[in-house]
Design brief:
The chain has strands spanning 2-4, 10-11, 14-15, 18-20, 25-27, 29-32, 36-38, 41-43, 46-48, 51-54, 59-66, 68-71, 74-81, 84-87, 92-99, 101-104, 109-116, 128-129. The protein is an all-beta fold and 130 residues long. It is 0% helix and 58% strand.
Length: 130
C-alpha cells in the first residue's frame, strides 16, 4: 500500500501536513512533499522533501529520507536527512544515520552508525551529544 501527496494541497501557502495518528498502522511506502508526523506505527519507507517527526508514541521500522528528522519515539532502520537528525530524551534510534548534523539529547538512545556529510561531500563532520 502506498500513498502520495501529488495534489499539493495548500494551506496558508504551504503544503498540508500528514499525520499518522495513534492506533494507526501504515504498511508500505509513503511519498509526500509535506511534513509527516507519526504517532502511530509505520512499517515501510517514508520519503518527503519536508520534515519527519516521530512522536513519543510513534514507532517506525523503515528507511526515512527527509529534509530533517526528529525522533521522540522509537525508530529502527535507516535515516537519511539533508539537514538535521535530532533524537530527543524520549527517543530511541537503532540503525544508521546519514545527515549534515546529528543531535543526540541527554537521555536519548542511539545504537548504530552515523555519517555526517557537508553538502554531499564525502568527508565526515562532527556530531553533537547534548
Amino acid at each position: 500500500m502506498g500513498f502520495s501527496n501529488k495534489n499539493k494541497t495548500l494551506r496558508n501557502g504551504s503544503l498540508t501536513d500528514t499525520l499518522i495518528g495513534e492506533g494507526t498502522l501504515l504498511e508500505g511506502s509513503c511519498v509526500s512533499q509535506a511534513d509527516i508526523r507519526i504517532e502511530g506505527e509505520v512499517v515501510g519507507d517514508l520519503r518527503t522533501s519536508g520534515e519527519v517527526v516521530i512522536g513519543e508514541k510513534g514507532s517506525v521500522h523503515s528507511e526515512i529520507q527527509a529534509r530533517d528528522v526528529t525522533i521522540a519515539g522509537r525508530m529502527e532502520g535507516t535515516v537519511v536527512a539533508a539537514g538535521i537528525v535530532r533524537i530527543t530524551p524520549s527517543g530511541r534510534l537503532v540503525g544508521i544515520v546519514e545527515a549534515s548534523s546529528l543531535i543526540i539529547e541527554k537521555g536519548a538512545v542511539f545504537q548504530g552508525t552515523s555519517r555526517m556529510y557537508d553538502e554531499g561531500e564525502d568527508r565526515i563532520l562532527s556530531c553533537a551529544v547534548v
